[in-house]
Specification:
The chain has 306 residues and is of the alpha/beta class. Helices cover 49% and strands 9% of the residues. The protein contains 12 helices and 7 strands.
Amino acid sequence: MPDPRAHAARPAAKALRRSLHAVVLALALAGLVPLAVAAVAPPASARAQPTTAPPARRTLAEPQAATVVTSPARPVSLLGLGDSVTSGSSCDCTPFVDQLAGLLAARDHVRVSPVNLGEPGLTAADLASRVTEDPAVRLAVQRADVVVVTIGANDLQPALDRWDASASTLSTVGGCASGSEGAALTRVGADVGRVLDQVAALRAGRRTQVLVSGYWNVFEDGDVAAADRGSAYLRWSDALTRCLNAQIAAAVRSHDAIPVDLYAPFKGAGDVDPTPLLADDGDHPDAAGHALIARVLLAAVPTVAG
């Protein structure tokens, strides 16, 4: 049975707790103890129950800046068209087309991809046919941002054959060749124009820089030429070369392209010996000659963009 003393003690305990509660609350309101202390302690049974923390609130992560992935700029395509000078025959060196690509890349801070389609023995008429009919050449032109052309010397091979057969039958009039040589020069100018027309058509209005060079000599020059054919030949071939250069420059200007003089860099006003710039055959540029051509072309090429 229950203990009577326990029943008697309960009212007294309740009265004591109410008194203490009142005192603490009065002190808290007076600022003497923190208000939190005034809370009545929960029953023991409530304290024994474990409390469960509320689940962590899920928040959306802060959006990160979008990562922009850009592909490298398309390389500038540099195309070389022409004869054995363009191809690098007899130089045992890096042809000027490839050297020019490196110079352009360094100057303009772009990637430059060179394509050299120089072909030994090619004439201006041959090149005009290539850019009109050859799918590979036409595709290369379509892709080219810069086109460099050196062509025309081989068209005059029949004149050299006639010189070797009988030099006395050849003449120059007013500094330019007459007769068969004059007709050949005119054809070269017309064929260079055909090449430039096709380049413009294939590029279809896209920004393209087209440079066409002349020659220092259409045939052999320097010490080798002097030993092989003599001083009269040097005078004749020099006059013929100047005439060809004039025809080429006229055709280039009429097609809004850039004519590039190689005569002065190799021979000055005609009084400089080009031998140090020529290969052992006296005809083609050597390593120094190709490096010079690349530098002259670089100066003529406006800034290129990738």
